[in-house]
TrEMBL record:
<dbReference type="GO" id="GO:0032259">
    <property type="term" value="P:methylation"/>
</dbReference>
<dbReference type="InterPro" id="IPR006342">
    <property type="entry name" value="FkbM_mtfrase"/>
</dbReference>
<dbReference type="InterPro" id="IPR052514">
    <property type="entry name" value="SAM-dependent_MTase"/>
</dbReference>
<keyword id="KW-0808">Transferase</keyword>
<dbReference type="InterPro" id="IPR029063">
    <property type="entry name" value="SAM-dependent_MTases_sf"/>
</dbReference>
<dbReference type="GO" id="GO:0008168">
    <property type="term" value="F:methyltransferase activity"/>
</dbReference>
<dbReference type="Pfam" id="PF05050">
    <property type="entry name" value="Methyltransf_21"/>
</dbReference>
<protein>
    <submittedName>
        <fullName>FkbM family methyltransferase</fullName>
    </submittedName>
</protein>
<feature type="domain" description="Methyltransferase FkbM">
    <location>
        <begin position="114"/>
        <end position="274"/>
    </location>
</feature>
<keyword id="KW-0489">Methyltransferase</keyword>
């Protein structure tokens, strides 16, 4: 049963707080959009980050480093320790409609692969929704992987879940995991040929199923900072069994791997999927959009 004690707060106070938060977010987002457009390293951008970081860390302290967010039908608990974790937890990266669309199609018995799981904003609600199914969260970045595992543990889950350090790609071997920004909850890690980062194991999804006994997925979510087509190529042998895919597509970051967003959609169409563009994030993030591919 939902605990409704917090709902006893005076409605006028709630309205005032809501208005205050709305004004703050509009100001912060306006500053961010201006600096993104004109100069990403300008003093205004530095001011925005300083103010927003101070705000987020204050909220982290006030909540004791633990937040509960209702996603779909379930309350999900997340640990928060940084600005990135706080933002990712409170607004779900602007991906709430996508997460809820994925959850709505689950029947309970699926195997779900969350590729690029970060701290678990997809993995945890999926694990909470499934009954006899299973979920695998693939997260090669060590800090986020630790936070992902802890978030799964702190939610009362009976689902079979697994956390993997493997970076899925189109080849088996090793690669450098680089990052634009390092902090718990940050999602800017990507595979690179430049030796400036940590070395991680790479595997094709097909290899995991054939050689390591992973259960073939029914539903897949992919967020890999431009390497979407590399991951899909590595899953070529199993895609005929996949019912749905949810992808975060990065048109500019695809160029890191010599691919394009159009090639990603063409690959999925050729594999027999119908494509639905779900649109951009609902927060201020730009340069990215979401796609659902279904049979």
């Amino acid at each position: 049963m939902r605990d409704r004690r917090a709902d006893s707060t005076d409605s006028a106070a709630r309205s005032g707080n809501s208005c205050s938060h709305a004004v703050k977010h509009r100001l912060l987002n306006t500053a961010s959009r201006l600096t993104d457009r004109y100069n990403a390293l300008s003093p205004l951008n530095e001011l925005y980050w300083a103010v927003d970081t101070a705000y987020c860390l204050t909220r982290v302290a006030l909540c004791g480093g633990l937040m509960t967010v209702r996603i779909g039908e379930e309350p999900i608990r997340f640990g928060v320790s940084t600005r990135s974790e706080y933002r990712r937890t409170t607004d779900l990266g602007g991906e709430r409609p996508v997460i809820e669309a994925l959850l709505a199609e689950l029947r309970g018995s699926e195997t779900v692969w969350d590729i690029g799981a970060c701290i678990g904003t997809y993995t945890c609600p999926v694990a909470s929704t499934l009954t006899t199914g299973s979920v695998v969260g693939f997260e090669p970045e060590s800090t986020n992987r630790s936070r992902l595992r802890r978030n799964l543990e702190r939610n009362t889950l009976t689902t079979d879940w697994t956390v993997s350090s493997i970076a899925l790609s189109d080849h088996d071997g090793a690669c450098t995991l680089s990052s634009e920004f390092v902090a718990a909850g940050a999602g800017h890690h990507y595979l690179s040929s430049v030796p400036n980062g940590s070395t991680v194991e790479t595997k094709r999804g097909d290899s995991l199923i054939k050689d390591e006994g992973y259960t073939p997925p029914d539903v897949i979510k992919i967020d890999v900072q431009g390497a979407e087509l590399c991951v899909l190529r590595g899953l070529r042998g199993v895609l005929t069994e996949v019912r749905s895919l949810y992808l975060e597509v990065h048109p500019s970051k695809c160029r890191r791997y010599g691919t394009t967003a159009e090639e990603i959609e063409a690959f999925l169409t050729k594999a027999g999927f119908s494509i639905t563009v779900l649109g951009p994030p609902t927060n201020r993030r730009s340069g990215v959009y979401f796609v659902r591919a279904q049979r």
